[in-house]
Each structure stands twice: as structure tokens, then as C-alpha cells.
Amino acid sequence: MFAPVDNTARVHAVVRRLGDAIALGLLADGEQLPSETDLAAHLGVSTVTLREALMALRQQGLIETRRGRGGGSFVRAPARPFDLDERLRPLSAEELRDLGDHYAAIAGAAARLAAARSLPDDVRRLRRSLDEMAAGAPMCRLDGRLHLDVAAASQSVRLTREEIRLQAEIGPLVWAVHDLPDRRAAVDAEHAGIVDAIERADDAAARDVAESHVLNAVQRLIERRLEL
User: Where is the signal peptide (predicted)?
Assistant: First the structure.
């Protein structure tokens, strides 16, 4: 959530990034944000840009700022949850498809290399995420972590950085569609398929399952967008 934002419309990008994180529960109610200097550095924006974004978030009731000792910016849980349809409206089906193609290529490449290069500790981390998913932990936290762990297991710094960037861009949409009642069982099976293929060092299967996992989610997003 704190990866650097794109150069265009930076205030809007920061508001969208932090707003999504709050609406999805990645930032908990009452949680204190990093200092303005640290947060601006993480996001790759100026402190002026960050302050404008924080002002917009305060106007939306998503954060509150406390002055004095022990002060700072604190998260306020939104009155309504993440609105998938609202987030989809500005995006065309063509944009979603193009973004999905790119994300599938990155996820597939990372999974293929993870199957070839992963160490036992990498697999144990992936299995732990699967166990937490089975126990009902929030998908928005675990899906992102699982994909980042796969990318890390690929031992490719560039792929891992691109995974982080893409999760910041499309992650909230994917997590929201994963949590739809008719998708959760299929998503769990896809996650297990990726980890199983990595564990048995089947690089072709790992790539195929990871690609289809992303493309299935994006197809649902496109279908939902066309219904609006």
C-alpha cells in the first residue's frame, strides 16, 4: 500500500491508494499512519502532495489528525465498505483486459521461476498463507501476501518490484472480486494449485495456474463492468 505512486495525478493517486487500503481493512480503524515525512518518502511524493491528499481523506472522513504530543494522522473506519462498482466505473473493459494481460504475464513468470528456484522456507511461507485463508482470514491481506511471496521465491528483484506495483494498481479490484460468494471456493483452489505446483517444482503448471488465476479474476471484473 505504500509503494511509490505513478507520476500522473499524484494527489488523486495517493487518495485512491490510502482510501482503498482503509476501505479494505488493510489499515485498521485507529491505526496511526507513518509521519508525513516518512509516508511521503515511501510513496515517492512531496510532502505538499501528501498533505493535499491527507486533507482530501479528512474531508471524506477516512482519517483524523490529532495535534500535540502523541498526535498524527489516524485511520477512521469508513461508514460503508469498499465499493467495487464505484471503482470499476472509470475503467473500460479494454483497460481492464490490458491490465489483466500484463498482470497475468508477471504472475505467471514469477510462479514459473519460483517453482524452479524456491527454497523449503519459501514453500512453508506459502503454506502458512493457505492455512490462514482456510481459517477465514481476510482475502485482501492474504492474496496480496501470497503473490508477493511467490514473486520473492522467484529470486527476481525486477519481477518482485513489478508485482508490488501491479498489486497497488489492480490489487483492490482483484481482492474484492475474489471475495464474491461464487468465487471464493475457486480462488482457494487456484491458490492451492499454485503452491502445489511450486512445491513439486512443476514450473509449467505453476505458470499456467498463476496466469489463469489472474485472468479469471479480471474476466469477472470485465463482466461486472459491462453490467454497470
Answer: none
